[in-house]
Design a protein that fits this description.
The chain has 237 residues and is mainly α. Helices cover 60% and strands 0% of the residues. The two termini are 26 Å apart.
């Protein structure tokens, strides 16, 4: 990504500032994409349109594009949030303890693995999800199961860095808010799936997520009240 291109786009007054920081990254269902800096500056030649079907190759290209975007934002703004994005994008820079091994991180990872086993058994493939199809309960569970785990980790890292002086307390709350919204959507989806057919795995996933939600709310008590500009309540575009 060229810095000059980024600077050209960022001057657009219609952009919602930093809306991409706390979204669920499901661009194909997002109304904010025309006003999102990340979406507007994506490398179409490499990552394609995020609303297109998701192949492994395109997923890898999207990750690489996200890393370049975070690096460019960090270079231009000096933002601690963008620097954290960049650090989390590569294993050699990704933080370890105390976030790794934290009870919330472990529970989030446990949920992700259980949900993944359930999805594999169900045969669901969201990579073939057309843009205009409804976000069915199965798709919601599939999309959010890794996001929940990864964003719990991010919230824990942000909170730890904030305790050591980094300007990341608001980021920790915003990320925790995203986790809670994702959990709420997933629990509703699991409930709808459970009403259609009985499956003991659905109950186990629901119990794990319910415990995870309680843990996130206890650890980040201000998260529910955090307003994600362009995404929450009256601020929604």
């Amino acid at each position: 990504m060229q810095t000059m291109r980024l600077l050209d786009v960022v001057r657009d007054p219609s952009l919602i500032p930093f809306v991409y920081d706390y979204c669920d990254q499901w661009c194909r269902y997002c109304r904010a994409t025309p006003r999102c800096l990340f979406y507007r500056t994506r490398d179409e030649g490499r990552a394609g349109d995020p609303r297109d079907p998701l192949t492994v190759e395109r997923f890898e290209a999207m990750l690489e594009e996200g890393t370049r975007f975070a690096e460019a934002i960090a270079d231009v703004t000096g933002s601690a949030v963008a620097q954290l994005d960049y650090d989390l994008a590569a294993p050699e820079r990704s933080p370890g303890p105390p976030a790794i091994g934290d009870p919330l991180e472990v529970l989030g990872r446990t949920y992700m693995m259980r949900a993944n086993r359930f999805l594999v058994r169900s045969g669901l493939d969201i990579s073939r999800d057309p843009y205009f199809d409804d976000a069915t309960p199965e798709k919601i569970v599939a999309w959010h199961h890794m996001l929940i785990a990864s964003k719990i980790f991010r919230a824990l890292v942000a909170a730890d860095r904030a305790r050591h002086g980094a300007d990341l307390q608001a980021d920790a709350l915003g990320t925790a808010k995203l986790v809670l919204v994702s959990i709420d959507r997933t629990l509703a989806a699991l409930g709808e799936m459970g009403r259609r057919h009985r499956d003991p795995d659905l109950g186990a996933l629901t119990a794990t997520l319910t415990a995870l939600r309680a843990g996130v709310e206890a650890r980040f008590p201000g998260a529910r009240a955090f307003v994600r500009v362009g995404l929450d309540g009256a601020a929604t575009c």
